[in-house]
Amino acid sequence: MLRRVLLIAALVLPAPALAAQGRTDALITIAHAHIAARQFDEADTALTHALGAAAYLMDTVHVFVWRAILEHMRGSDSLARVNFHSALVLYSALRVNGLDQIAPGLADVFESEVRRFRVYPDSEVDQRAVWVSGPKLAYPPDMLRRRVAGHALVRAVIDTLGEAEGFGLIVLESPDPAFDEPLQQMMMAAQFSPARRKGQAVRSQVTLGFDLHPPTPENPTRLITSAREQLRAHRPDSALTLTEQALDSTNQATAGERVYALLVQGMAWRMKRRDSLATVSFDAGVTGYRDLIARGTDLAPVLKRLADSIRISRRAVPLESPIVVGTVDEPPALLTHPPIRYAPEMQALRIGGTVIVEATLDTTGHVLPATVKVVQTPNPVFDAESKRVVEAAVYRPARVHGRVARVTIRQPITFAAY
Question: pTM for this structure?
Fold first, then answer.
């Protein structure tokens, strides 16, 4: 009886699996006989030789199916799954009927692997895949500016984990090809509840429609305020994103709001140590601010304070004269120093004050780095910048009895808050 059932099982494989004749088929036939006689080791040997002799893909698939049957008969469903899996990797459309006639539960072993490969249409599942969560569509900038809207249709395969597979993800229709990539990115980042068949999660194909409408313009002032909050939290990248949104023409910022956004954008670039980009933003912002003042435009106090603070902090005004600790005939004089960087978060909060830095000058007028220390500060945030400026400063040396001398100085550095 077992021999007859095994032969029936072989006949219900797809036609392509029986197309190849010759040595492989002969070895598989020998393996059938050994399995029917429960001579499992001999069957294993025959199937090993058959796999080595397989010249065509479907020959190999046929061998893996019979090796899966053999492993199940030996009592190892895990190895049976491995072989069914190998067969399905080569031919995902594989169907094998009559497996339960060989042994109860063998069909379930096969189906457990089939579920991982087969893509079920909605008509064959008990529960369809459903969108659970995901990002909003990143509207293409050009489409946003042109206010392009319309309907999009996307087809995708949702895996057993509820994620869209990249292969086979197709935008069937959309108002403009510019939407295709954002739609695909949105689908790949989405989370679905997977389709289910007989209580098991399965891969399924879904076709989803989306109504695409440009987002409602956002309040630029609110965006810029949020950007300043991001700067206070030391998140310049987020601040830059928000200022770009505020400056986007779709949000219809006023001239004052554009100035405000450019100044905050410059602060964000400076926090990232991108001084050249900060200069571009500051120049545009300060120029716009002066134009508004010249036209007599009534500006919000917060914008006035910020613009004035940035203008003051960017001036190349020499530092105050150093104070000498001790007595000299001719005090040192400051010749050069690097620009002072006013911490953006301190500007935003309008925190200022004077830092006193003590340092020793050698007889050439250069600062000895090891001697630099802060002796008075309104806020520790200013300390590192103050020390940096003094260390890089150059002075005309002090003189005692007509000769250059090494002296200790105290250099005031003022951060003006407006």
Answer: 0.44
